[in-house]
Amino acid sequence: MLELMLCSMLTLLPDYLVRRYVQGKRIGYEITLFSVWYELRWGITLCLILTVLLITIVLYHHPSSTNVNSLFRTISIFPEIGGRVEAVYVGYNDMVKKGDPLFKMDTTRQQAAVETARARIAEVDAAMATAKADVLSSEGKLSEAKGAYEQALDELRTKTQLQQRNPDIVAAREIEKLQTLVATRQGAVDSAAAAKESVETRVVSVLPAQKASAQAELAAATVELEKMTTYASVDGRVDQFVLRVGDLVQPAPVTRAAGILIPAGAGEDRLLAGFNQIEAQVLKVGMAAEATCISKPMTIIPLVVTRVQDVIAAGQILQTNQLTDLSKIGPPGTVLAFLEPLYPGVLDDVPPGSSCIANVYSNHHDEILSKDTGSLKRVYLHLVDTVALVHALVLRLQATVLPLKALVFGGH
Is residue 225 a contact partner of residue 111, using CB atoms and an 8 Å limit? Predict the structure, then answer.
C-alpha cells in the first residue's frame, strides 16, 4: 500500500491535476466513477507499472523475511544408567551451574560393589604382610638348611681325609652314609631356596598384580557409583523437570527425558532468518539489517549479517535404502542468514525462541564511487539504495501494527 501511494504521487496525481486544471474536467461531471479508467488511464497504468517495479526492486535488493527466530538449543536430561530415583536436588525451573547434581538413583548395588572391591584390596594388603613374614621365615629355613648341609659336607670331608690316610680308621659304609646325608641336605637347601623364591615372587609380582586388579575393580565400581548421580553438563536453567523420588528412569532413547536443560545465553545473541532463494545472490556478509519481534513490540532492532549459509537445507539427502525421488523432497528451502546485534545489548530483552520480521538492506556506496561504474548504472544504484527507505518505513508500520494484529485481530 505504501509503494502504491508513493507511485500514485508521481503518476496518478499529476495525471489528475492535468485533466482537472489544464483540461478543465471536473469530478462528478466529466470525471465520474464510470469514466475514471478512461479519463485517468495513463496515470493508473503508469502507477501500477511503477508500483510493481518499485516493489520488485525493493524486495530483491532489500530482502525481507518473516521466517526469523532466535533459535536456541536444549539438552535432554537422561541418566547414564537406568534405575529408581532416590533423591532430587533441583526443582522446576531452577538455575544450575555446570557440575551441579540434578538427581540421584538408588545406589545399593553399586555401593556393594565398591565395598567388595575395598575388602579385596584390604585382603590383598593382609596377604602382602603375611607374605613378607613368609619371606623372613623362608630365609631362616634356607639358612638352617645351608648350615646343616655345610655341617654334613664338612664331616664328609673330614672322614674322607681320615680314610685316605688310614682305611681302617673309617669304614666305607660310614662314608656312604655321609655322602647320602650330604645329598639329602643339598636337596633341603634347594627346597628352601625354591620356597624362598616362590614367596618373594608372590610378594614382588603376584600380590601387587592382585592389588592392581582390585584397585581397578574399585575404580570401575566407583565410576558406576558416580554414574548414578546425574549432573548438569553446562550452566543453564532446568525446565520441564518434574522428576520425583521413586520414579523409574532409563537412559536415552528408551523413555522420555527426565527434563530439559536450557544452556545459559542460548539464542540470546543472534537471530536466524530464512530468505527466499532468489535473494541468494544479494545477501552478503556485512549488510545492515533491522528486525522487529512480537516479544519486543514497537521496537526496531539494528542488526548486521554475519554469515550466510552456503547450502540450502531442503536439498540434503539422507542415507536410506531407497533412491531419492526429487519430487518428494518437499517445498523449496530458504537461504539461512545469521543476524547479530549491531550494538551490544539490543537483543537482551528478546526472549529466545521469539518470532520476528527482518529486513536486510543493500549498500552500493563503494560501487557508486567506483570509476568503472557507468552513469546509468550509477543512477540505478542510487535509486536502489534510496528505495531502502520505503522498506524501512514498511517495517516500522509493521512494528506498529504487530501488537494490534496479535492482541486484537489474533483472537487472544
Answer: yes
92, 135, 87: which is closest to 107 by C-alpha?
Answer: 87
Q: Which domain holds residue 345?
A: 62-71+267-318+328-412
pLDDT in tens, 303-348: 999 999 888 887 777 777 777 777 777 778 889 999 999 888 888 8
124 and 257 in a single domain? The answer is: no
Query: And the C-alpha cell for 251?
Result: 537412559
* 139 within domain boundaries: yes
Strand order in the sheet with 236-239: 75-77, 259-263, 236-239, 95-96
Of residues 77 and 314, the one with the higher pLDDT is 77
Residues 288 and 363: beta-carbon distance below 8 Å: yes
Q: Are residues 204 and 258 in the same domain?
A: no
Give 176-220 as a DSSP string: HHHHHHHHHHHHHHHHHHHHHHHHHHIIIIIHHHHHHHHHHHHHH
3-state helix, strand and coil shares in percent for the chain, rounded to the nearest 5: 50, 20, 30
Q: Compute the C-alpha angle 86/92/94, nearest 5°.
A: 100
Residues 243 and 360 grouped into a single domain: no
H-run or E-run covering 258: none
pLDDT tens, residue by residue, 12-38? 778 878 888 888 888 877 778 777 777
- Report how far residue 13's alpha carbon sits from residue 43's, in angstroms, rounded to the nearest whole number: 7
Identify whether residues 238 and 203 lie together within a single domain.
Answer: no
Provide the CATH number for the domain around residue 94.
2.40.50.100
Planar angle of CA 266, 270, 273, nearest 5 degrees = 120
For 40-107, where are the alpha helices, taking DSSP H only? 41-61
Q: Is residue 323 part of a domain?
A: no
**Of the residues 227, 250, 277, which one is the last residue of a structural domain?**
227
Angle at 97 between CA 96 and CA 98, to 5 degrees: 125
Do 293 and 401 fall into the same domain?
yes
C-alpha cell at 105: 538413583
* Tens digits of residue pLDDT in 340-362: 998 888 888 888 888 899 999 99
